[in-house]
Amino acid sequence: MTVKTISCFLLLCLSLTSINFAQAQTFPTKKKSVLVCGDTKVHLVDYELSKDTIPHIIWTWDARHIEDLPTEYRNRKFNSTDDVKVVNKGKHLLISSSSGAIAMWDLQKNKTLFYAEVPNAHSIELLPGNLLVAAASTHANGNKIMLFDLKKGNNAIYTDSLYSAHGVVWHPKRKTLFTLGYDVLREYKLQPDKTLHKINEWKIAGKSGHDLFPLPDYSGFYITEHTGTWIFDLKTAQFSKIKNFPDAENIKSIGKTTYGQYVFTVPEQSWWTYHVSFSDPARSLAFPGMKVYKARWYKE
């Protein structure tokens, strides 16, 4: 091994072994940082302190260490975290797992606010009125979106069928919910009786929808599917390719900061990757031994 290789290995070991776990550490927010999820974990990575491809991990939520989750959730239902979002002005995380669960985590109090069983969960979103919606993907009891009332326990109060449901995003300006399935994008209106009424549906470009994420100004959405990545313009209802973006098949997540840098994940084996990629400017961070699914910019 060369001196450079040994140095990089030691830096990686230091980064991965000095993790502060969620149960015991206040979540630091005043940094340019990225949330990375996979296996039983969600990492917070300081982008600027990361060296070369070695991530500087400063905080970790690990389901195995979350004492206020039931044993089955700690040991099984969060074995494959596949999405994480920041809500409520940076106070809470929404976490989903394709092993069959969702959770809402309080970053300041280090506690679970809500959890529920969702078959093959792939996305989660907070709605007005203490409501939460999750996408249940392909599963004998899945292929639907599930609506929960946070004040009424962890049983869904409403469902609607959606084959291979993968994405849910609330649009704060339109006050509607967008959902992504295998080959369709839908828009729902939240009703006074806490049900969802479908008001629009569009055939997506391609098939096997993966990720649905808003543009920074909410003028449209990034949509990934089997063949590549697209922008859906809400004004024209048209799909277009992203200019100067390193497109690829089966991109699992994509997002962009207000200052223009993309973060995205591309599978290397089956559905997972060992790297988080960036564009404009380009960069890659390595997570050896971790089956990474999605990465999101942390925004308060």
How would you sum up this structure in a few lines?
The protein has 300 residues and is mostly beta strands.
Describe this structure in words.
By secondary structure, this protein is mainly β. It has one domain: 7 Propeller (Methylamine Dehydrogenase, Chain H). Helices cover about 5% and strands about 45% of the residues. The protein is built from two helices and 24 strands. The chain has helices at about 5-15, 70-75, and strands at about 35-40, 40-50, 55-60, 80-85, 90-95, 100-105, 110-115, 120-125, 130-135, 145-150, 160, 165-170, 175-180, 185-190, 195-205, 210-215, 220-225, 230-235, 240, 255, 260-265, 275-280, 285, 290-295. It has a four-stranded antiparallel sheet. Residues about 1-20 have low confidence and may be disordered.
Label this structure with key terms.
300 residues, 7% helix, four-stranded antiparallel beta sheet, disordered N terminus, 2 helices, 24 strands, Methylamine Dehydrogenase, Chain H, mainly beta, single chain
SSE map:
Elements: H1 3-17, E1 33-38, E2 41-51, E3 54-62, H2 71-77, E4 81-87, E5 92-97, E6 101-106, E7 111-117, E8 121-127, E9 131-136, E10 144-149, E11 158-161, E12 167-171, E13 176-180, E14 184-190, E15 196-203, E16 212-214, E17 220-225, E18 228-233, E19 238-241, E20 253-256, E21 262-265, E22 275-279, E23 283-286, E24 292-297
Antiparallel strand pairs: 1-2, 1-24, 2-3, 4-5, 5-6, 6-7, 8-9, 9-10, 10-11, 12-13, 13-14, 14-15, 16-17, 17-18, 18-19, 20-21, 21-22, 22-23
